[in-house]
Amino acid sequence: RAxxxxxxxxLSIDEVIVAxxxxxxxxxxxxxRYQHGLSPAALRRRAWGTRDADAYANEREVTxxxxxxxx
Length: 71
Fold this sequence. Notes:
mainly alpha
């Protein structure tokens, strides 16, 4: 499910981690790498292309309170 969310949605990696029920990012990344052979960020770059992944990163910003906003 995490792979699909990373490939097909604009959820942040942290949001995907929560959505699939992991308590911490390190555990998620280890399990994801074991299952898919690459990191969540690498999968997203491959799925979206470098240009699209960069546009996605620029579009999202974490505010001081940890909530996501779009500018």
